[in-house]
Amino acid sequence: MKKLLLLLIATSFVLPAASEAQRRTLKPKTKATTSRRAPPSTTREATLRNQLSNALRMAQGGQYEAAANALFSLSRRSELAEERPQIKYILGTMLIELKLYQTAAFQFVDVIRMKHPKYSKLAIEKLSIVADTLGDDTILNYAISRVDLNDFPSNLRDMIHFRLGEIKLRNREFAKASELFSKVGYGSSYYYQALYNKGLAELEANQPSLAIGTFQKMLDGRRKAPVTDTNRVAAQMGLARALYQKQDWEASVEAYSQVPRDTLMWHDAVFEQSWAMLRSARFRSALSNFQTLHSAYYEDFYMPESLLLRAIVYLYICKYDEMEKVLSLFEKTYGPVRSKIGDFLKSTNEASSFYAEVEKAHVMKTTDKSANLRLPYIVLRNVLDQGDVKRSMHYLDKLNQEKARVEANSSFRASPLGQYALKILANRSRNTKFAVGDMVKAHLLNMRVELRDLYEQAGFIRYEMITGRKESIKKKIAGKDIGEQIDEDIDRKFYIQNGYEYYPFQGEYWLDEVGNYHYLGKQSCE
Questions:
Q1: Protein fold of 1-26+44-152
Q2: Cβ neighbour number for residue 259 with a 10 Å cutoff
Q3: Which pTM value belongs to this model?
Q4: More confident residue, 36 or 379
Q5: Looking at the predicted structure, is the pLDDT value of residue 403 above 70?
Q6: 146: closest CA among 183, 172, 119?
Q7: What residues form DSSP beta bridges with 518?
Q8: Residue ranges covered by each domain of the chain
Q9: Taking the CA atoms of the chain, what radius of gyration do you get in angstroms?
């Protein structure tokens, strides 16, 4: 990388030849003429050109900080207006070497705006690399919109196709996103991420069969990787979701079971598998999942739907007492959550207030330090896991890292370039925080609507519970609560999985007091 940079500087940065007027000025004439002093402007330009030559030598010698400071000063001189695209481009490359990516991005944007025939194109390439490092879609969009994709060097095209595909996916242009992800080559570091996103785009476009093929291809490519490999686990999860969307419940349940326990996706896999079990009438199996989902370990997870799903399973197997407990737990847990979200939304409309709250939760999530939160932590944790918020918080982390690098070097911090960098970082950080605040507000509004709808569903479920209890009591009074005789042609596992009860003994029948074989099957509540 260093050799390439030095070659670029040596071959691309050439001071322009002196103009005809300058040659006439510098050409010796008569003694009277040569004894005159050179005009001040000519002397100043010569001095600046010497400084520029020195700056380039420092850059070639690896003195990036000194070169960057010198080039920054020279980029502001009106006498070097013609050389400014070159100066700012080299300055940007120096800042990349110093890992000051956001500050470098501003230099490349300036060069692009100058529309220099050579350096603007080079700046676009560098800007796309910087945008990829920072994870900033705004910068990437700006860079790509100014040039044909085919004009990018081949080594950058995979990255460009992948990032563009991400943008199209977020804009719900699923066909275009899938096409762009397909262009990422096998040898690229973005290949498996692109395959996964391609599968997501196909699912969003309601093409589960295509998605199954895509996730299976990704899974086959990672067979030799460890079972906890991130890409392998993501492919397994994607495959399970695609099978669920295709309504192949049994295959979906099996695919979810292959997600390793000691991975971040396991909790989501257990919850989603519970839905697949419900759809395939495997009620008892679903209940065993809920014992995990609702354990104390996951008390900080926002998952109101899982409690209602558990209540529905109890409804199917007529466990009304358990159903009552779960519905009460739902109301006890999410009633205060719903109220606090509503109160917070009413108390402020400032983006900064929404950001401040989620920032405190971000600190808690990364450092385990307690904070005085106005919203429940389970709400803020859920918001932090949303894609747009997560990307923006990652970008803020990058800005904070860059700020720390500047401030760690006292001499650079005191320099004009250091002050300029801090100003850029402060502005970008402030604007991003406002954007995050707006995102947080939008998610809280969605959560409030979701909880309102879930409370309505809880009311319907409670009504079904009361109705079921009433019917059960009627049947008991009428003496019709004796269940069905077991069908010996049906496997015993079928009854267990679908809510049938057996007396606790080994065998299929029980001899009652009067000598008759009798089996109590499904409760008489249907």
A1: 1.25.40
A2: 23
A3: 0.76
A4: 379
A5: yes
A6: 119
A7: 510
A8: 1-26+44-152, 294-481, 482-526
A9: 33
